[in-house]
C-alpha cells in the first residue's frame, strides 16, 4: 500500500478545487526565483493544467502533489520533475506557500514522504534538487534529509539583473 500520509500532513493529487490555491502560488512573485517563473499564469492555463494533472508520471515526466493539513487546508506543493526512468532519477522541489506555515516541520515531513515514495514505489536510484545559494532554509531542509551538496553552479540564475549561484544536491538510494 502506498502511504503518503505523515503525522502532521499528507500528500494528495491535485484536484479541480485547487485552482485558486495553485493560481495564488504560481502568481506569487516572491517565489518566482525558486520556481524559475518569468511571467504570471492565467486561471485558464492553470485550469487546463489541473485537467491534465491525472496523467501518468511515465508519460508526462513529472508529478505535482499538494501538501495538505489533516483539516484539508492546502499548505504547499511538492514536485517530482525531469523524471528519467532509464537512469532512474528525478528532480524534486517543494514550496510551503505561507511563511506562517514554514518552520513547523511540514516541509520536512512532505519531503520524507516523497523520498520514500520515489525510492520504494517509483524505483528511483537518485533524486536531485537545485537550490539558490541564498536559500538557507532549503539547504538545511534537504541536507537534513541526507542530500549531499555536489556542486556550485556559478552565476546560474539571473534575478533582477544580478546573477546568483545555485547549488546542486543529490540523494542516492544505496
TrEMBL record:
This is GNAT family N-acetyltransferase. Keywords: Transferase. PROSITE patterns: GNAT (PS51186). PANTHER family: GNAT-FAMILY ACETYLTRANSFERASE, SPERMIDINE N(1)-ACETYLTRANSFERASE. Gene3D superfamilies: 3.40.630.30. Residues 9-170 form the N-acetyltransferase domain. The lineage of its organism: Bacteria, Pseudomonadati, Bacteroidota, Flavobacteriia, Flavobacteriales. InterPro entries: Acyl_CoA_acyltransferase, GNAT_dom. It comes from the Bacteria. One of its GO terms (molecular function) is acyltransferase activity, transferring groups other than amino-acyl groups. SUPFAM superfamilies: Acyl-CoA N-acyltransferases (Nat). Pfam families: Acetyltransf_3. Signal peptide: none annotated.
